[in-house]
UniProtKB/TrEMBL annotation:
It comes from the Bacteria. This is MarR family transcriptional regulator. Residues 8-141 form the HTH marR-type domain. It holds the Pfam family MarR_2. InterPro entries: HTH_MarR-typ, MarR/SlyA-like, WH-like_DNA-bd_sf, WH_DNA-bd_sf. It comes from Sphingomonas rustica. Gene3D superfamilies: Winged helix-like DNA-binding domain superfamily/Winged helix DNA-binding domain.
Amino acid sequence: MPTTLKLDEFLPYRLSIVSNLVSDTVAEAYRALFGLKISEWRLVAVLAEDGAMSQQALCGRTHMDKVTVSRAAIALADRRLVERAPNPDDQRSHLLGLSEEGWRLYEQIAPEALQMEQRIFADIDPAELVRFREMLDRIQSGAEALRE
């Protein structure tokens, strides 16, 4: 086991750098095309996939902190992209769901997101991508295990 830390060889650092680069690239496109921050797009995508949920559930699903989720939810509500409804399971909170306008925006963004993903990974063999996804799942599991 090496005893000297070299950042360019330290995998957590490399993962962070690559993740930030990809995220920033995608964020710039969403901001330019749709006026959305990456946190706002993530909420829209999660609500489209999973349906209405509380902000606490959105924190868990997106791995974003409460403040980031709250700010994104407020921005989306201000643009009438999400609607708030009472939470029948918890009277202290509410559920967020996509409005009709939010769904229309999602239907515009989703194809752009898939196209961007395809461009980012264009030089990687499909079999390698399958293996990469499997490895990401294992890395995520390992990191989650450390948090427990």
